[in-house]
Amino acid sequence: MRQSPELNRVQPKISPCSWRAMALTIASVCVLVVMVFVGASMPVNAAPGIPTTTVTPSQTPVANGIIIPTPSPTPTVEPPAELPPPFVPSGMYSWAKPVTYLDDACAYLKMRWDPANSRPGTIVVPVMYHRIRPRAGMNGIPEAKFQAELAAAHELGYETVTAEQVADFLENNAPIPPRSMMLIVDDRRAGIIERYFMPLLEKYDWTVTSAWIIANSDDIPNLWERMEALNDSGRVDVQSHGLRHTYITGTTPMKRIREELFGPIPIHEAHFGYRPVAFVWPGGNYTRPAVRVAREAGYRIGFTIHPNGPSMFNWIPLGRQERTMNDPLMMLPRYWGGRNLADSFGDAAEMGDESYANALASYELEAAYYHAHCDGDLP
Q1: How many Cβ atoms sit within 10 Å of the Cβ of residue 204?
Q2: For 100-178, where are the E strands, in sequence order?
Q3: CA distances from 280 to 168, 250, 301, 324 (A)
Q4: Contact at 8 Å (CB) between 209 and 237?
Q5: Which of 120, 174, 188, 169 is nearest to 353 (CA)?
Q6: In terms of CB atoms within 10 Å, which end of the chain has fewer, N or C?
Q7: What are the residue boundaries of the structural domains of the chain, listed by start?
Q8: CA end-to-end span of the chain, whole Å?
Q9: Contact 302, 328 (CB under 8 A)
Q10: Contact 344, 158 (CB under 8 A)
Q11: CB atoms within 10 A of CB 180
Q12: pLDDT at 235
């Protein structure tokens, strides 16, 4: 199924998923658990409302949708000196590598297994949109295809999240739906949001993020009023796409870079009532100095145009160029609307399920590490 891609503020709706009891049970499971979860064709149920898969006889489904291995005597686990490298799901693109960003292993494990946080394997799938058109043959994604893409995401159990929710999740593993996506409309496209997105946002109870360009917005009649009304609807989260939509390259003067990143903030606050936490790199262009300026300006996350895969807590898939920036949270990948997106939603969900299964199989090892090197025990 996998194809290479040609590539206000709302509270998250979280399926009731009490995996704390599951994690405690895992501690009493024998090493055969690894054999169970590593087997092929074994996607795991993510949560109620997410499509289910067939369970093998050696696994026990429980009422909340989580699959727990059949208990057996616990072997002795030798605490490792360090945690293993990041897990690589079978569906990873060849050019991308998972990169972690938390240096404190004890803090990471505590947040990873805190029952109040997102469960392991929770994914965020950001999607980039520009033009949508009423029919095929026009410049943009045909409306019917756009509607089919979002219907596929809904069928797979995806829910939308805002930029602040994504930042909280990636920094602290704050709770979000197990299959989360962030719909992002680049540039000043209030009409696209009003005409094509709002009906589907109402239908599915979702949100969309507008990557907003500040410059010359005053010159378009009623534009600010329309965007403020969309922001006030609770369906639209507005984030920064730069002051002038400058493509930042190695020759861009530092003064221009600072204007592009700092300039939108006070204007954004005046019109929408909050400071932007995300910066969407104009044209997908960035440099290491620009990334440092983005952090100085207070942005918590940044989005590229690279469709490397879904992001997870302390796990960002990055290509070679993004890895050289040394700041994974400012290099978050985005899928492209209209380009095999329905398949990509399914692929990303499978990667999340596989990562969830790997986390369950790794719990004993991680618990042993935490007991030996950290203060206390995991939940």
Answers
A1: 15
A2: 123-129, 132-133, 141-142, 159-160
A3: 17, 18, 9, 18
A4: yes
A5: 120
A6: N
A7: 20-86+351-373, 97-347
A8: 37
A9: no
A10: no
A11: 25
A12: 98
pLDDT-derived band at 71 (thresholds 50, 70, 90) equals very low
The mean predicted confidence, pLDDT, of the chain is 85
Q: What is the pLDDT of residues 98-128, one digit of tens each?
A: 999 999 999 999 999 999 999 999 999 999 9
pLDDT band at 21 (very low <50, low <70, confident <90, very high): very low
The model's pLDDT over 344-362, given as tens digits with 9 standing for 90+, comes to: 999 999 999 999 999 999 9
Amino acid letter, 211: A
The set of residues, in sequence order, having a beta carbon less than 8 Å from that of 328 and lying 6+ positions away, is 99, 100, 101, 316, 318, 322
Residues 127 and 183: beta-carbon distance below 8 Å: yes
In a 13 Å sphere around the CA of 254, the CA atoms on its Cβ side amount to 4
Position 15, amino acid:
S
- What is the percent of the chain where pLDDT is above 90? 75
Q: Which of 185, 123, 129 is nearest to 157 (CA)?
A: 123
In 3D space, the residue among 18, 15, 23, 20 whose CA is nearest the CA of residue 359 turns out to be 23
Minimal CA–CA distance to 224: which of 238, 206, 207, 235?
238
Residue 6 sits at the vertex; the CA angle it makes with 321 and 130, to the nearest 5 degrees, is 90
Is residue 255 within 8 Å of 218, Cβ to Cβ? Answer: no
pLDDT in the model for residue 339: 83
**CATH fold group of domain 97-347:** TIM Barrel (3.20.20)
